[in-house]
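REQUEST FORM: STRUCTURE PREDICTION
Request ID: SP-0412
Submitted by: Lab K.M.
Chain count: 1
Length (residues): 321
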Amino acid sequence: MSAIVRAAPACLAPLPEYPFEPRFVEIEDPAGPLRMHYVDAGPRDADPVLLLHGQPTWSFLWRRVIAALVARGHRAVAPDYVGYGRSDKLTDRFSYTFESHIRWISSFVRALDLRRATAVLQDWGGPLGFALLAREGERFARAVAADTILHTCEPWLEGRLAWANHPIDGGRMVVQEALLEWMLLPQRQRELSPGAVVNSVAVRELSPAEIAAYDAPFPDESHRAGLRQMNALIPVTRGDPAAAIDRESFAALRRWQRPFLTVWGDRDPGTSGWERVFQQEIPGAAGQPHRVLEGCGHFLQEDRGPEFGAIIADFVEATRR
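STATUS: Completed
RESULT:
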């Protein structure tokens, strides 16, 4: 049975550019009630912009985007996944499955009763958020995909991605070496520093205080089970349960008629090619002002946070009915 640990007091200390009041909502889980933390900034009567983070980050990643959105009169909602940030953490790493993460974020959206929302999906926020769009689509008016993926492990992806992950004949898979290295990194590093990981792929140099802020919610190994397990959930075989979920999500996206925008950094080989896949496969992406930000890496929020926030605000305002 998995134990539940709460975010360390260190992560409640003042953090750079992160003045937001902690908010919590309780969701049900077989391990017991779980408390999820979230930022909720801006006018409460405005339509929400749901900001879903990835690995190995938490809502701190969105601080500059949140500030830009609030300055334009938007409501920004940024949760920490279970196992991340100030949310509760299960100590058993096998409690973290792709399906459980989807269930938790779906429960969060229902608990806050978000409606007419804009989903902004980056890194793991993509696969989780795309499943959310497939299952709770009536709650969302539009979506923004940013440097993310949706690994379905299907043959039609061959030649379309910078990091290959597709089957070939004879029951074999072609998987990019760098993708496998990324999957193995949290399994093999004794001292796993999220801040060092973010800094290593950001174009700009993070300050020591920013690196420490990313690390703060994970003070010891009892807080790192979800952090360790997430990369192992990336599907690299057709029979992986996550690949099946991603195929269901992609089927729903191929029916998505609402506005869909892609915003990509030009220095992110890990997700390069996916922006064109989404633009070509999702009906709602047709005719939208898709963006590629020059000199920007995987974490747009760190390299170009205020500009990214302005792009989201422009998109929301231009597609209101």
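NOTES: Residues 8 and 217 are 6 Å apart (CA to CA).
Reviewed by: T.R.
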